[in-house]
Each structure stands twice: as structure tokens, then as C-alpha cells.
Amino acid sequence: MDKNRYVFNYYSQKENNVTKAFLNVLEHSESRLTEEFIRKILQFETRTSEFRYKYQVVSDEMNLNNEKAQNFILGISDNLEIRNFKDSALSSVPDGGIFPKGNGDLNVIIESKVGKKVFLTHGQLQRHQNLFKQSVNTTFIYLLWDQIRGFFKEYKIASTDRLTNFLIDHFEHLCITNDIGTNIINNDHWFYKFGDFEYVARYLDDIIMKEIRYKIYYQNTKNNGIGYHMQLDRSKDGFAKLHVGGDVKCLILRYGSGKDNFGIRLQERFYKEYHLKNRRNESNSKAQPNELWLYLDWIANSKIEKNKLIELIELSYRKKYRIKE
Description:
Helix content is 38%, strand content 19%. It is an alpha/beta fold. Strands 1-4-5-2-7 form a five-stranded mixed sheet, with helices on both faces. It is elongated, with a radius of gyration of 26 Å.
């Protein structure tokens, strides 16, 4: 029994885990997902409707000897550059494969790489070709992980199968949180980092972007959260940030410049009024006296009403950018 068919088993290497997750989505979703993948991505009109999904493919796979089958070698990576790397290996084990149950009209061998500086190599792909009895019927196809993600997301739009949509959502989550693909550092990447408080982070983001009186732009999202700014120039300090770092998950509001102590004075009054315990360490408070920290668990527990949040956010905007009412 292949233990890796089960979604909760995992490998030690990210590359193998992502390939396994990809195959798990296909195997445990409705069969039409695999058929559509073959037709749209491999551009092959298969007559096969039942498939088997293999991990670490070896040469005893029965259908590899089928002389009538169309063979595919599918390389998936974060870039489309195929390197020429010479090594002395005589054989290699593909990361996975898709095969028919019984004799069918195709075989798909999968080799995957993860990381912007990790490349598929011609030598390894050619060795995989040796697994086929009739290697002349072999088509090489190279895809980005973003293309896999895009195919799944497009399929989900028309799908009504709950399990299929659940698995597609979790594969997308895996890619975002593990930096798989080229569009990795986006807002969803950071929302997922908030864990149990993801819904609170999205709630605050919605308030900032839609419910305060001023036009807001997203700032840099490469450093522990999502920043907010009054303009498209993202090189300067923003007025607010949804911060996630270690155990700290909070909305940071900035009042004035870095040396302005208005923020810390406002924080003291606000914490006292709402009976909130100050969790900031002393060195941080001294280094950033212009900031007020609102922890997401307070908002989750309804300790701060929405109108007060809007008031604090708008005041931060005005103080930061010296706007007079």
C-alpha cells in the first residue's frame, strides 16, 4: 500500500510535499478534474476515465510497457529555464505519475522543482524517458506552478463539488504559505499567517480600505504584514500596519513621526479607558512612541467597537500626514 496516497502523510522535503499535494488534489477530487487537466493542460483527448496516482515512480509500472499509449513527461517548476547539468547517474526516480487503471491511452511522469533558483535538467528528464518502452511516443511539457494554481482556480469557478473545491482551496493555501509560484508575497500570504485571527485581519483590512474617509493604498507587504499608505510611494513609512510576527498579531497605528510621543500617550489613555493590558515591551515603546497597538484578540472578543476603530484609524491618518479637519 502506498502510504503517500493519503493526504495526511508527508515527506521531509518541500519539493516532494508539493508534488504529493498536487496529486492528492487530483486523486481525491471528482474524476473530471484529472480528465480536464489532461485535455486542457496536456492537450490530449483521453478516452481514459479511471486513473491511478503514483509517488516515486519506478519501472515496474504496468502501463509503461503499453506500446499504444501516448507518453508525457511533465516538468513543473518556478521558472521555465531547463539547465544542462552533466552527472554520472544512469537512472532516476520521477517524483510522481498519473496512469490509467489497467491499460489506457496515456502515461504521465512528473518531475517537479521548487524555488526560484532550482532548475529542471535535461539529463534527468531524458533518464525518465527511459522508463517508457516506446520512448518515441513521448511529449515533454514544462509548466510553472502558477499555471497549475491557475488551472485549479479556473476549474473551481464552475465546480459544485464541495470536496474538490475544498482540496483546491487548501492547495492554494499551501502554495501561498510556502512561496510556491511567482506571485507569492501578496495580501493572502499575510492573512493566512494570522491563523485563527485571519478573519479579524480581513475585517480590519475591509474597514481601512472601504470605510474610512480617505483614499488608501497598500504599502510594502514583504516585512511581517500588510502596510497602508496615503499614496502609491511605498518607500516611505505608512500610517497603519496589520502586523504578524511571532506571537504578536496586532493593528499598529502611527501618529506623526517616529519621535512623536502622541501615539504612546494615546495608547496609555485608551488602554486605561478600555481596561486593556499593555503587552508592548518597554524598549519597543521607547523606540516607537508614535505607535498605538491594537491586538487582534481584543477585536475578536468585541472589546473595541467598530466606531472606535474607525475613529482611531482616521486620527492616525490625519496625524501621520498632517491633515487638519
